[in-house]
Design a protein that fits this description.
Layout (H helix, E strand, L loop, with lengths): L2 E5 L16 H12 L4 E3 L28 H6 L5 H5 L12 H19 L4 H27 L11 H4 L4 H10 L1 H27 L3 E6 L8 H5 L14 E5 L9 E6 L3 H6 L3 H13 L2 E4 L7 E6 L9 E4 L3 H10 L4 E4 L7 H10 L3 E4 L21 E4 L8 H7 L2 H11 L7 H10 L5 E5 H4 L30 H13 L7
Parallel strand pairs: 1-2, 1-12, 2-3, 3-6, 6-9, 10-11, 11-12
Antiparallel strand pairs: 4-5, 4-7, 7-8
Helix pairs in contact: 4-8, 5-8
């Protein structure tokens, strides 16, 4: 079925509290999608963020981000007062998230909510804990211990017995010592999932499906690696032997050194990929469709010796391949998956994606290389794919048009019939919307024709406003809604005129 949708992360929604949340503005965006004839809302990972603020570097593959908890709902629930919330500064720029201000102010509010709500919600919290104990027990202890040890990575904790999880007795001793912080972590996760489940139910009522991202790797400083280190390539002191990255590419001359520990795929294969089945199963409860980020790493992955400062010295190693696909399909037969198959593609990666049957991705910004034919040109698409104007890692279309080589822009102009009256940005969107791809997805920034100041992320770079962009209030106009609906209808992606 042909359809279209929009990429907009939750953090990028308007909000009076410094960052987009799971509250009213999220429901209003779902309303906009429905009225605009869109059927998909794609978001980025929902996990807790830390240094660098990247949703692709979270300290748990299962937990939710406390930044996204809607404070207005906590006021309605009687867990906070209006005065308490209004007394906190969350930043002054409605177009940017100030993560430093969020960190300084939000957690004090959430602690007050926990103090008031723990006894009141105890029965519901206990039920939530029992349902999620497989990851929540370790995560709560990890976050509490991290605070106890001055927010240092777990690999630097002074107590080696806890660091290496040498006994159940050690874990229980710290659970008793850090009971208050553990309780706080459990309660905030309860709040997050309660609000997320309510929002998701509302979005479903609007006929909108959610596409969510699952990063292929998790950080070294995460509850996942600390609690289940046997699934990762670590030495006897739990330090990585090699780490993840990608070789030099379109974005960076040195490649990208992600630094994540690599999986011990032999160990995972031996137990039927149970950790991955749990992870993707949890994602399937959050989203309607799961996008596996860096799918090519399942065929082969770039391994960089631990301690290197760039990814240049890495080498390719074989991934789990077809056995992984078989295990996931057997265990999770109803899971709808998208393969993020961008980057350095080989015949082997293409063969694995085709074996899986998962749709791949086509990015229009990569199509118009005037020097050689591109598989990203719409006339080369299979129907079983998703066409994107760009992903969160790309420039906005307006920025691309300004920065691209003149010959590439001229090629796009000729290929798509771009003209000043329609606008070049709208013309590129039209090119994707009219393609044979089953699904077309555009960045919200592109529908708004925003420039480089609205770019979500520059890969391989810390800072520079990455992950900070927010949509200003008032931009979801009736005129924009009509424009989206009309184009989706013309190209058979909606039955709304």
């Amino acid at each position: 079925m042909r359809a279209s949708g929009i990429i907009l992360h939750i953090t990028s929604l308007p909000s009076p509290h410094g960052v987009g949340t799971l509250g009213r503005e999220a429901r209003e965006f779902a309303d906009f999608l429905r009225k605009a004839g869109q059927k998909y809302w794609q978001i980025l990972p929902l996990g807790p963020t830390g240094y660098g603020d990247s949703p692709y570097q979270t300290d748990s593959a299962f937990a939710g981000n406390p930044y996204l908890i809607d404070l207005e709902q906590l006021i309605t629930d009687g867990l906070l007062t209006r005065e308490e919330v209004d007394a906190v500064s969350f930043g002054s720029d409605p177009a940017q998230t100030d993560y430093g201000a969020l960190y300084a102010g939000r957690f004090d509010l959430l602690r007050r909510a926990c103090e008031r709500g723990w006894d009141k919600e105890r029965e519901n919290v206990d039920a939530f804990y029992r349902e999620n104990e497989s990851w929540l027990r370790s995560y709560a202890l990890y976050t509490a211990a991290k605070r106890h040890f001055g927010m240092r990575p777990w690999i630097e904790w002074e107590d080696e017995d806890l660091r290496l999880r040498r006994s159940e007795e050690v874990l229980r001793r710290y659970e008793e010592l850090l009971a208050e912080d553990i309780r706080f972590c459990i309660f905030t996760q309860y709040l997050f999932f309660r609000q997320w489940n309510a929002l998701r139910a509302y979005i479903r009522e609007q006929g909108i499906r959610i596409i969510g991202d699952v990063p292929i790797y998790v950080p070294l400083d995460s509850a996942d690696v600390w609690a289940e280190g046997e699934y990762f390539q670590l030495d006897d002191q739990c330090r990585p032997t090699e780490v993840a990255g990608v070789p030099p590419d379109y974005f960076t001359a040195d490649g990208q050194l992600w630094g994540n520990p690599l999986y011990d795929w032999d160990r995972m294969r031996d137990d039927g990929y149970r950790w991955w089945i749990r992870r993707l199963g949890a994602a399937g409860k959050l989203y309607d469709t799961v996008r596996i980020d860096h799918f090519r790493g399942l065929e082969s992955y770039w391994a960089v010796p631990y301690g290197e400062t760039t990814a240049r010295s890495g080498h390719w190693r074989k991934g789990p391949g077809e056995s992984f696909i078989d295990a996931i399909k057997t265990a999770l037969p109803g899971l709808d998956i998208i393969a993020e198959d961008l980057g350095f593609m080989t015949p082997e990666v293409i063969a694995l994606r085709e074996y899986s049957g998962f749709p791949g991705m086509k990015v229009l910004q990569f199509a118009f290389d005037s020097r050689e034919p591109s598989d990203y040109l719409p006339h080369r698409y299979p129907t079983n794919c998703i066409c994107y104007t760009g992903t969160h890692d790309n420039a906005t279309l307006a920025q691309w048009l300004g920065d691209a080589k003149g010959d590439d822009v001229a090629y796009a102009k000729q290929y798509l019939g771009l003209n000043d009256e329609e606008g070049y940005v709208n013309g590129i969107i039209r090119g994707g919307m009219s393609s044979v791809a089953d699904l077309f997805v555009a960045q919200m920034q592109d529908w708004l024709a925003l420039g480089g100041e609205s770019r979500m992320n520059v890969p391989g770079v810390l800072g520079h406003g990455n992950w900070c962009w927010r949509m200003k209030p008032g931009l979801l106009t009736p005129q924009l809604e009509k424009s989206l609906r009309r184009m989706a209808y013309i190209y058979g992606r909606s039955d709304k005129k």
